[in-house]
Amino acid sequence: MKLVAYRKSRTEKSIGIWMGEYLIDLPLASKRYKTLVFPFEMKSLLELGSKGMLAARDIVKRVAADLENGKTLSCLISTQKVKLTSPIEKPEKIICIGQNYIDHCREQGVEPPSRPVIFAKFWNALNGPFDPVLIPSVSDKIDYESELAFVIGKKGKGISQEKAMSYVAGYMVLNDITARDIQKSDGQWIRGKTSDTFAPCGPWLTTRDDIKDPHNLPIRLRLNGKVMQESNTSNLIFKIPYLIWFISQNITLQPGDIISTGTPPGVGFARKPPVFLKKGDKVEAEIDGLGTLCNIIQ
Question: What is the pLDDT of residue 109?
């Protein structure tokens, strides 16, 4: 399933299942079919656990049957009439992994790390998949980083690698926008990584069972139509089960937590000459099977 969070208007928000030309509004569908009552935001859906996912899949089947019988359904909404937002609105944690592709380490002239490099973004950085990215007045060296992110589906601590994948709710694209000048001058990464709008993600949360192998997905980024990054998640140094094990040894993971796995080579600051984002640029981060983000720099 492709789970989406969206707005019908400035004040109305909901969640649904993306079907292409239309989406199924889950709270409306739950009223029609008198099933499990669905919340209006994704984190609460994930907190329902497996019963929430099973109920959502059941709704897809029932909607398909009703459509085949020619019924008109108020829970179906044209995707042309909605605005997609970040799939997760206010996660407890956004955990990011640095230097997790060997070629990305090489382009920086650093040795691949022996253990994951961890940093954080805050949820003020979350941004919709098609919303503008705002350049802060204190920076003029803004960079892009196309990344595979996964979302935690259930609470856990001290999770073994063998059981780790059962804690994954699904996957999405995340563009880890970075102010390189702030990152460098501060001597640590937080402020340069977590400016407002610096984490576009989505366009939907693709559930774990719909992705056969998250470690074999082509990933790329285009800047104004030109391919700047192109790799495959098979090149990750630390794979998802290891990351979940490593992080959860001392940090309790919660439903809705976002973990972004790092970026492949081709980032702007490592190019000769460097390439930084400017107002009017169109940035497209894309992973096969997970969709494309398209953000204009402002």
Answer: 81
* Residue 187 pLDDT: 86
In terms of Cα–Cα distance, which of 97, 143, 96, 103 is closest to 231? 103
Which fold would CATH assign to domain 2-84? SH3 type barrels. (2.30.30)
Which of 9-13, 83-87, 274-278 is least confident?
A: 9-13
CB 110 within 8 A of CB 30: no
CATH number listed for the domain at residues 94-296: 3.90.850.10
Q: Is the peptide bond before 241 cis (omega within 30 degrees of 0)?
A: no
Q: What is the pLDDT of residue 281?
A: 98
- Tokens coding 158: 């001290």
Which residue's structure tokens are 């694209």?
Answer: 173
Domain boundaries, the chain: 2-84, 94-296
**Taking all residues of the chain, what is their mean pLDDT, rounded to a whole number?**
96
Q: What is the mean pLDDT of residues 7-28?
A: 94
What is the Cα–Cα distance from 82 to 143, expressed in whole angstroms? 29
Is it the case that residue 92 has pLDDT exceeding 90? yes
Is the per-residue pLDDT at 106 higher than 90? no
What does the alpha-carbon distance between residue 152 and residue 134 come to, in Å, rounded to a whole number? 28
